[in-house]
Structure prediction request, 587 residues.
Amino acid sequence: MSEPVLGFERVSLRLGGRSVLRGVDLALHAGEVLGLLGANGAGKTSLLRIATRVLAPEHGALRLCGRPLEEFSRAELARRIALVPQRSEIPFPFTAAEVVRMGRAPHLGLLGFESRRDLVLVERAMDEVGIRELAGRSILELSGGEQQLVALARGLVQATPILLLDEPTAFLDLRHRVQVLRLVRALASAGQSVLVVSHDLGLAARFCDRLALLSRGEVLAAGSPAEVLTPALLRAAFGIEAFVFRAPDGTPVVLPEAPAPAREPSLDPQT
Amino acid sequence: MAGPAWLAPREVLRILLGGSSISASELPARDIVLRIRLPRLLLGGIVGASLSVSGVLFQALLRNPLADPFVLGVSGGAALGGILVLGFGGALGLGYAAVPPAAFLGSVATALLLFAVAGGRGRLSSTSLLLTGVVFNAIASAAIVFVASLSGLAEGTSIFLWLIGSLSAARESSTLMVALFLLAGLACVWPQARRLDLLALGEESAAQLGVDVERVKRILLAATSLMVGAAVSVSGLIGFVGLIIPHLLRLLLGPDHRLLVPASALGGAIFLILCDTAARTALGGGELPVGAITALAGGPLFLFLLRQQQRQSLLP
Prediction:
């Protein structure tokens, strides 16, 4: 395979004395959608924060298009990697369109004003995400799902070769989830590389080329959805028993085992 | 150009436009306009602009629209710095000219403390904001009174004016100095306006969009301290200008800092000139401290905003 656009090489991280990541090796290739799965606290978001250099790894290195991440200035990095966070609380009444426009910041000139082309890109991104009608609304009045779509549009207008999505569908209904993930597929077909953190195993299996399963700061498995979504690995990563079926096209479908049966009602009057 | 002594607007205009046609009978009027009212007006405008822009900057830095240099206690820190020089500077050979730099240092020190309290997350919740502000202000006013008593400044009304905020004690020479501080502050800030917008998304998102967050914070800290230090050193603790004006302008123009920063400078200037005019004319011959008027206007607005925030439960 060709050189990864973004490579984590034996990355370790400690936060507040706790070991969060331990020797993580992970590669994101051009034009692929890589799904990052794992239990809460497994280190998924930390991995994304390291990739945007908000956190520095304790050991290990990151390579962006073959060059060490530290060689890039903040502005250069912002033109190559976009991160759509789980949520951002904005204290001022910016309109949705204004927030999306902020995604163009790394591309603006000295004066910091958007050109016509920037504004066209903003409109196009809002159309792609399907939030044109929110453009003039204050971000403070939008629902969690709507805010998430605004953040996604902001990530799109950043027009970077690499897109990191932190649970982009957490607050969305099924129709919007599918819509967002279809969009992600389209971006990958156009050459963008996408790393998406998800808790929805079914959708991840459906829309990602490869999956990586993170558990307690280590990569437990990485490979095709069929290789990663196995009962044994799911047990190891999430501590659950699950059935794995195959959809007609071979995509694995995960179904957690039924809850432990309620205790049989006792006939013994003593209890 | 209003004041206790009545001058017809036409007369004032004629004096301002100058010309040699001013008769001897008009000389007192000329002095009133050029020596008293014009400098006072300019000073009010500059102080108002400084306080208002500082409010915008603190709000962006702490990501809380309730922030204001007075509410946060940064003005108090600046006042303490100034008072220290006024009280004890003479013994060290420091003159009146050392007051603004000392106020600047006091403001820097308080703002640094504030960021230490805000912690690494770069956001001050309304609760912490209020608590730190209350404590900083209490410490600063206690220390000011203490210093003033020790150094004999407490006699007379100057300490009272300093604490409540007034433009009446200012000297003519200070106008130019405050203007320079304001211009320097604005020159630092305006180029950062777009980055202030990005900071609203949170420090991590701002960094991810290419902002060198620590650098921007340092620049803004220096700029606010310059402006607050200068304003406080000539006018004492005038509160709430930095709260009222940015709030009104956000409603009118939206939160985009590229527009909000210059508009706040202008709006703050106009607002404080109006308040000062009211302060000088409301009592006929006497004069109210302008800080009393801004506090009467700003206090209720602050409470209203706090209530609104709690209802939206936007901030914890």
